[in-house]
Amino acid sequence: MREAVAAGADWIKCNLAEAEATTGMKGVERCIPNLIGNGTTGVMVTLGKEGLVAEVNGTKFSIPAPKVKVKDPTGSGDVVTAALIYGEILNLPMEQTFKRAVEDGALHAKVKILQIYK
User: Is the pTM of this model over 0.85?
Assistant: First the structure.
């Protein structure tokens, strides 16, 4: 991820552990400024059951996750990323995109994935 930040990737999406490992900082608020490269539009850091924190073109967002009974969180981060891409393609407002991303990720975690494919 360090290479993506240094290259000024348009978007950086990671979880808190990845953000802390990449920046050497502790805490999402300290990490985000260090994940913004030259040319970066936005940074989104997922926080699991706490939701996500993001910064887009200098505007900060903090979106709480809905409370769900988690059966299997595997792939929830990928669902959040897909929702971000979907919102970008449709040019949706960022807050709406982030809310949908958190909701979709939480809904995904409610399902035991292996049961779907049996």
Answer: yes
